[in-house]
Amino acid sequence: MSRDAHRHRHTARIAEVRAGRKAEKVPYPIRIRRAEVVRTSAVGAGLLRVTLGGPGTAGFEAHSPDEHVKILFPDADGQLRLPEPNGDLLRWPKPSPISREYTVRRYNPASGELDLDVALHDGGLGSDWARAVRPGETVHVAGPPGGLIVPHNYDRYLLAGDITALPALARWLEELPRTAKGWAFAEVADTSEEIELDAPDGVEVQWLHRGPGNPPGSVELLADAVREVKVPDGERLYAWVAGEAGAIKPLRRWLRDDLGLAREDYDVTGYWKRGVADFDDEHDH
């Protein structure tokens, strides 16, 4: 099957799920790309946008608000070990190369530019890289491995996340139909970390300020605020929650047990865990 035929097959499946009744993970062909840094720019005080481009980003696929790619880093000895193409998948070397995962904030097919918004924190491998990287430098990007495709016909959407989930939250709000209704909660340190959001008029956005003395993931601000939501009787709700694994754990139980949502009607993902450098949580949906 040609690459175009492959693309047609999964884009048709994405359209089918989008028009259906329940969310579903749809895989797309996973590529390893050699990209170049075009520019970096601050997005509020908490995020640094790394824009990638060059021939390697041509034909990139972006279909889901919280799909992610891996940025690959050299080993301690300076050797960069890359996965190899294997049909629609990648064959990864063992042990796995050092990598960090980032949400695809935006891909522009016309310019070929790919934006990754990196949450800044002291001593983080990805943070240090984003701060130091300069235009013209080469970056190797693997993925996305697919994405969770959510129908656009729910009555309401409930979106919630911390600073690490803010890029995905922003993309969620941009890509929802302009007629969508619901709630979006974003936990940040203070007003300096707030960013512009393009939310539908019917989605109420609430910024939650942790306060500079409280590190991310250390307070129950997000979970407490979200649990105040009252969903009108008889309405179908889709909920998406991402952030520090411990802080969002109570919301998984609340969505399942209190709201009684079916498995396919919510996605709760730990993007990171306090004290764990390269945490990897499977999506729960």
UniProtKB/TrEMBL annotation:
Domain of life of the source: Bacteria
GO molecular function: oxidoreductase activity
InterPro entries named among the record's database cross-references: FAD-bd_FR_type (IPR017927), FNR_nucleotide-bd (IPR039261), Riboflavin_synthase-like_b-brl (IPR017938), SIP_FAD-bd (IPR013113), SIP_fam (IPR039374), SIP_rossman_dom (IPR007037)
Domain FAD-binding FR-type: residue ranges: 25-151
Ranges in a coiled coil: none
Protein name: NADPH-dependent ferric siderophore reductase
